[in-house]
Amino acid sequence: MSETVKRYYDDSAEREWSRLDHPYSRVEWLSTLRLMDRYLPETGHICDIGSGPGRYAAELLQQGYRVTLIDLSVKALALAEQEFRKLGLQAEAYLCEDARNLHLLEADQFEGALVLGPLYHILEEEQRLQVIRQTARILKADGVALFSYINSWGVLKAGVTEFSESYRDPEQIYGYLQEQKLDENRGFTESYFTIPAKALDEVRAGGFDILSYAGAESFLAGMSAEVTRLYREDRLVYDNLLQAASETSEAPQYREATEHLIIVARKKAAELENHAW
């Protein structure tokens, strides 16, 4: 990924650690944990690719998994190690590498993988496919991975309350009906947004069978302000909605139009004999 993306995450390490504590982001957090619990193997070694400061890795370590963290930000990894130490946790390794460099890892060594961020920032399709193929290569037979994309359709909906002024230009609205490649002036940093069908096709082309996919925010997508208000004013309603949203994130009527699309996939059997990418 570019120096722009690396700089963004170096500057955002602390914010990324606390981001999932925001009342709205808790929906994404719980939905992702539910998918991890439902689809990852019960034990084994998990590779967290694009781990950031390690919020999901910490959860896995607490459940008894072995975890290797990979991230392009040395500051994020340093924060992960610091926070893990406070919790009495220790990862197998903290590797400061671009997700496109997974070829440096040995094949067939992980039971599962998380790829919950790198694909947001890789603008070229062939490079995204490289990450997905290499994820398949490092997984053992029947290994399961979770891939996250930013969904243009969900961003369009969120924009109604978060950046509606940009919709004075109708082209901005219709642009979100397809994939978008944004520079740091238009995105939160250099970013890639896509649509569900294209994301699913990429994961299949990278050597995986799709098990399921989810919209992390479920029916609460685009409602950050209202969800936050309920958190402050009516915690019972908030808690009930949070639970229901996380439990319905895979429901077809919700998963197509949320900001975070999470694809759950299993390594294809045919890939076991083909590591020559």
How would you describe what is shown here?
This protein has helices at about 5-10, 15-20, 25-40, 55-60, 75-85, 125-140, 150-160, 170-175, 195-205, 225-235, 235-245, 250-255; strands spanning about 45-50, 65-70, 95, 110-115, 140-150, 180, 190-195, 210-215, 260-265. It has about 280 residues and is of the alpha/beta class. The radius of gyration is 18 Å and the shape is globular. Strands 1, 2, 3, 4, 5, 6, 7, 8 and 9 form a 9-stranded mixed β-sheet that branches. About 45% of the residues lie in helices and about 20% in strands. Strand 4 (about 110-115), helix 6 and strand 5 (about 140-150) form a beta-alpha-beta unit. The protein has one domain (about 5-265): Rossmann fold, CATH 3.40.50.150. Helix 3 (about 25-40) packs parallel to helix 11 (about 235-245). The model is unreliable at about 270-275 (pLDDT under 50). The chain has 12 helices and 9 strands.
N-end to C-end Cα span: 20 Å
Q: Helical content, roughly?
A: 40-55%
Largest sheet: 9 strands, mixed
Mean pLDDT level: 94
- Helix tally equals 12
Number of domains: 1
- Whole-number radius of gyration? 18 Å
CATH superfamily: Vaccinia Virus protein VP39
Cα shape: globular
Classify the beta-strand content into a percent band: 15-25%
Q: Please name the CATH topology.
A: Rossmann fold
Q: Can you count the beta strands?
A: 9
SSE series: HHHEHEHEEHEHHEEHEHHHE
What's the CATH first level? Alpha Beta
| CATH-defined architecture | 3-Layer(aba) Sandwich
Going by helix content, strand content and strand pairing, the class is alpha/beta
